[in-house]
Specification:
By secondary structure, this protein is mainly beta. Helix content is 3%, strand content 34%. The strands form three sheets. The protein has a four-stranded antiparallel sheet, with no helix packed on it. Strands 3-6-7 form a three-stranded antiparallel sheet, with no helix packed on it. The longest helix is centred in the first third of the chain and has 4 residues.
Length: 124
């Protein structure tokens, strides 16, 4: 039987009960394990936890824990009425006040591994 998946080591998170599971690895295709991410990170689905699946290509999702960026307001610009959560790779158009723009004159922020880029601040 093909056993393509070694014990998963990934940044910003871990399997539930990983200590008791560790001796079972490597595991075969079709196995899945619940995992959670550190504070400020989440599975790509945006849920608070998710499954890591062993496939013929290896672990799915490939990057289990991505940065979670919260948008509530941008300095010198319009706010959202409530906090909205974005995950790594997602972008958001920002409305700056007249005469202001984001760093580099952009109007779009992207959620990156290190948080919002450019930062949520409209400057003159």
């Amino acid at each position: 039987a093909l056993k393509p998946c070694e014990f998963p080591q990934f940044k910003y998170g871990r399997l539930y009960y990983e200590e008791s599971l560790r001796p079972n690895f490597p595991v075969s295709i079709g196995n899945k394990y619940s995992y959670k991410c550190d504070n400020g990170f989440s599975p790509p689905s945006g849920y608070s936890w998710d499954y890591l699946r062993c496939t013929a290509q290896g672990w799915e999702p490939e990057v289990p824990c991505v940065r979670k960026c919260v948008f509530h307001y941008v300095e010198n610009g319009d706010s959202a009425y409530w906090e909205k959560v974005y995950v790594q790779g997602q972008s958001l158009k920002v409305q700056c006040y007249n005469g202001y723009s984001l760093q580099n004159g952009q109007d779009t922020m992207t959620c990156t591994e290190n948080g919002w880029s450019p930062p949520p601040k409209c400057i003159r």
